[in-house]
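hi! just following up on the protien thing from before. the input was this:
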Amino acid sequence: MNLVGSTDPTAMARHVEDALAAVPHLPAGATVVDLGSGAGFPGLPIAIARRDLRLVLVEIREKRVAFLRHVVRTLSLEVEVRRASIEPAPETPFDFALLRAV
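and the predicted 3d structure came back as:
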């Protein structure tokens, strides 16, 4: 679907490793928002590794939202995918906000 720049296995592994770097720092049961989720980094790897978290993925582009929803359904993840801009900030309070490209 052309969601990431490179599909090289080494580059993909790096994306996943970067995403998982936050995992040990998130307390059990935390609410986490991934702003500008794109192809699902860091939100999806975190959701897979930490099913105890309440994760919300926010993405404005419909193609990517459709992809994220498909992955969430396929993997039976308890993750909310919102089609929205990251501006203004979400009205719902979150314990942590993650952004991959910032």
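Residues 35 and 88 are 11 Å apart (CA to CA).
The chain has three helices and four strands.
cheers
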